[in-house]
Amino acid sequence: MPYLEYLRIERYQPEYPQAISRNEMETSLPKISTPRLCELTVKGRVWRDLMRLDTSALTVFSTDTPDVVTILGVLQRSPKLEILNLRYPDSMYFADPRMTTMIQMTTSRIRSLQVELREDSEPSFLFDFLHLPSLTLLKVSGVYEFSWPEASEAIAQSLVNLLRRSQPPLVTLDNQRMNLSSVQLRDIMELCPSITTLCLGSCDFYFHGQLVSTISLPLLTVPVSTPPLLPNLSNLTFYDVGHIDFDELVMMLESRQNWRRPGETEQEQRFKSELTCYNLTEDQQKHLAGLSNERMTVTVNGLPIELCAECHSSFPASNDFVFDKILKHIRRKSPNGFCHTHELQIFEPLAKEAEDKLSSYDLALDQLRDTLERLERQRRDLWMLKEQLRGLIKPSIRRLPTEVSLHIFPLCKEPEWGPSQCDASLILSHVCAPWRSMIFSEPSLWTDIFVGFGLRDNDAAAQRILAFTQFCLDKSRARPLYVEFETPNRGDYRSLGYRNSDNKWVLYPKGLHRPCLEEVCRHSNRWKHATLRIHGCDSLDFADTMPCLEFLQIERADRRHDDDPETTRSFPKISITPRLRELTIKDRAESDLMRLDTSALTIFSTDTLDVNIILDALRRSPKLEILDLRPPRTTYSDISFFADPRTTMMTCNIHTLEVYGDNVPDALFDFLHLPSLTFLRLSGDYGFRLDSLSFVNLLRRSRPPLVTLDIRSMSFSSNELGDVMELCPSITTLCLGACCDYPIFERRVSTLSLPLLTVPVSTPPLLPNLSDLTFYDVMYMNIDMLVMMLESRQNWSRPGETEQEQHFVFELNGSNSWLRENENDEKRLVGLSNEKMTVTVSRSRGG
């Protein structure tokens, strides 16, 4: 859309099915290029439309969405934004709560920010993540008050923190409705001395028993011997003030009248003040108006209007027959006629009298308009108070539209410590009959199924769990399922149990959970996200096709003691899983791996030690990008640590490889070719040595564009470490842990690496692109060699990079005892930090 400059969208229907998350929509929606879009206004549920637009040229943005995550996302994508108008931003509203983890501080060049609040809207979360160094106009308006005191204080304090963080050159501050305490108002005045226009509305801070307009008078009064808080203030307005101290008001105005702003001429010193107040007498209003002179203008509104009981006019109904006199003379003349000389003495006074009467009409109309606006504001405020009172009698949440309620209900789920989604839905259905009908008829509220068996469960408990699981599966209809199945799974499941009150060991009944597991597996064709923690002898009868499955995790207890042949049935068929992206296999669940279609797999994690199983999974997963190997400490006699003689070399497009554990099958590296590897992490227990020859040959064979190398608690010789650096010169991030030189275990790899990392005088270093270097769990290190290495890196200039890109970061995590004994060395290292290098030293808990 190359010509689009202005766009307004209003949508008040649900944008997308509730089962689809924002993360999925953000990646699936087609983008629309709008290079000239300057002004955008969106109202209602328009998140889908908003995410599709290119807002790189946007300068004006207006919205009434309460989702602060969406608002911050637009600001981050709109570097040219200057004007932002928000209605009803609410920190408690998120279209997708999972997106809150992605929120970060947002710096914007906005010059004008206008925020309109409504009852119980709470924008503190938005203010806490904004940095507005160019803000010149700030306006806050909205409801009369909030239903709880903490909200008012939190909003005001968040606004003060925003101004303290941004230090903007604020010129205009218009606060018509937000409550401020005297301390907060003083903080704003001290943080923004550049304010020239200040507007304070009916902000009755009931919880402190004062009005903002009242508490501001001492702050605005110019002291005798010191400059005022707002030295540049030239326009002051009080809106809808219900009460104000007249003597303090006069004192403030007179002090402003006598104040001389430095550097301004007499004409530039003029001060304007406008007051709309209803408690002042007529004499007091005249006294204030009399303060006006050549240096100050005072305007007082809100004079009571007495309406005529007959014609409801603000002045007597009689018009002294002016209208009739003029009409009589006009009728005597022709349309194009003119008056005679002797008639001028009659017509001119009539015209002057008519002009005076027209001025009276204009004045009456202006007063009536002011009265009408005042009455409308008072009616609106009274209506809001009435609604708050009615909400106490009958909770307003029961009157919410169905689509709004169905958006709120899923937020009641607390998966870590509270009820699951299905449990929460069942609890909410007990509130009232309309909610029960709504919840039972919505399948999406029953798709998140958690099945958990405990050690103390018996047959009765198993029957209740099975009945509720069947109930949830029926209510979910044909929607995709999120399944989590938990069984007691600590150690050998044959001895699982607990001690009863008689101190007798009660075993967990064998197969207690299997009927429920079979019921869940019967619906495996609807699985989308499944986690199964089951026993080794449990059978999984997958569906022939699982078209929705994207994530699967299977953890089995030790299968070496399977002694129940009736339940260990085999299912040789392969289930088609065309959308399976992430798979985790743990605790000897290799048989389940062989039955799955992994053609679309991108992330694979396993703890198996069998080389042939791992290679077979890689061979069947052409799209695999991330491989995570975490073998257990113990080994089993039925595991093959050697590859099948028929195994051939395998090329994989893996870009991330993480290996952790003491029993890593070295033979795996002999059959891999990883030309796309960019991230490699090797870690294990202290002193464990990986087959260095296999590892170095893997790098020599693959020649990967490695960017990050992380080696912890594994043994390498200095030659092997040098070979790794020569084979991977593209490394930019290097992390070395407590790794030993295996011929001489007293020497550490972090120490051995210092000569290799030091930049030679006349030749390039081994790692020319290195910009981040970290040493973990260092017990001892030669400080002189370390300082020499850092100074050489500090003086090294990577070719083809600017001065800003040359920055080098070094982090040292040393033992507490070593650093405590060598505090001078620690200060010496930290003192090397400058604009080209950052050095950080931290202490580990051990030592």
Summarize the structure.
The protein has 847 residues and is an alpha/beta fold. It contains 24 helices and 35 strands. Strands 16-17-20-21-22-23-24-26-28-29-30-33-34-35 form a 14-stranded parallel β-sheet. The chain has an eleven-stranded parallel β-sheet with strand order 1-2-3-4-6-8-9-10-13-14-15.
CATH architecture of the domain at 679-847: Alpha-Beta Horseshoe
User: What is the highest CATH level, the class of the domain at 679-847?
Assistant: Alpha Beta
Find the structural class using helix and strand composition: alpha/beta
What does the overall shape look like?
A: extended
* CATH topology tier name of the domain at 679-847: Leucine-rich repeat, LRR (right-handed beta-alpha superhelix)
Give the strand order of the largest sheet, numbering strands 1, 2, ... along the chain.
16-17-20-21-22-23-24-26-28-29-30-33-34-35
Number of strands: 35
Query: What ranges have pLDDT less than 50 throughout 5 or more consecutive residues?
Result: 15-20, 94-102, 144-148, 204-210, 316-320, 565-569, 635-639, 741-747
Could you report the average pLDDT, rounded to the nearest whole number?
A: 77
The number of helical elements comes to 24
Distance between the termini: 64 Å
Helix content: 25-40%
- Beta fraction of the residues? 15-25%
Question: How many strands, what sense, and barrel or not for the largest sheet?
Answer: 14 strands, parallel
Radius of gyration: 38 Å
